[in-house]
Specification:
heterodimer, A: 221 residues, mainly alpha, 9 helices, 86% helix, B: 215 residues, Rossmann fold
Amino acid sequence: MRALLAIIHRDLLLVMRRKSEVLTALFFFVVVTSLFPLGIGADTALLRKIAPGVIWVAALLSTLLGLHRMFAADYQDGALEQLVLSPQSMVLLVTGKIIAHWIVCGLPLVLLAPVIGIQFDLDAGSLSVLMATLLLGTPVLSLLGSIGAALTLGVRGGSVLMSLLILPLYIPVLIFGAGAVYANSVGLDTSGHFSLLGAILILALAFVPWVSAAAVKIAIE
Amino acid sequence: MTAHISTTSSNSTLVLEAHELCCVRGERELFSGLNLRISAGNCLHVRGENGVGKTSLLRLLTGLSKPESGEVRWGSQAIALDPIAYHRELLFLGHRDALKEDLTALENIQMYAALDDIALSQEKALASLWRFGLRGRENLPVNCLSAGQKRRVLMARMLTRQAKLWILDEPFNALDIQAVHELQNLMIEHLSAGGLVVFTSHQEINIPNMQVLEL
């Protein structure tokens, strides 16, 4: 447990020392989501309709921007070897890195969502559903992304390959995340969407850290 | 069974053995049938030309890579059986310094202590950095340090790590004469405290109880 906190602390400290990389991803999210209202104009009915999809797609892409950072820097300077050789289970350390990634790249999206939502003329009910889906969905994005980040370690042009590997896996989260907001706006029950998002999150939590830890070990062998 | 455990729990557990190791990189067989045995207080200097497989051998000994055949044993147990227990006793320093450039020297030492599960007070961490001539530089980010100073931070880590077995890949690189001397003393100290050292180097090193392995 102490090691888990140590690795989260370490990764957050490193991010604080080099803020630009993280701010790029967040700024990307804000700019892309702001381009749509500007491009489409003041058709509020249309904006309200496309809002969930646009915000969710932007969230996927901005998560992807920060993913390569998860293991690549540690791989290059040899710190990943030291992590594998530390007397800790690699699964625990990988989990710590995923949590740190979510705090930096996922949590701010949840907090920014209401501000973005206002541009799309979303009402308070839709905004709260949107935030709740992002809260359940963004950890899944970080978890699944860690597999791609670990598998493409040391591969030239790895980030493009990683996008191709990971984006298809994000589709279920996108469907149920955006679907819940849409269902809420037309007055349907959203509990099914939330149950499925929760199920995906639990499933990912249960399996992904093991898969990523194995992929990291293969990469440094 | 109990008698067996009581005999191995003493100092005799501190033996690193390689049994019939075979290492293949790509299509090429680097070495095969390699046996070695180092016990507490002893030091092994691995020598050989560039590309002969020194680093590969060290990585096999740490368990970072798996041998094609044969096995590495620590205290008569294969290291693959309980890697976490083995890693608790092991310090490996590779070519790359593994220091985070954006963190200070002190933060790097403390961060590794936390990950290696060692209780390390701030005073102790500072004292270890000062011992290797980094007084006044402990709060500089590591990317402001020279290559030799980074190796000195690693020496401070060796001092604080409390590992029994040190596996060092080219530890004398980038060090000035004074620092080479300090590192030799540090290794001799470690050996006389009952530790083990395996290292590679192209320099002539004078350490008592040193065996040489020519690859």
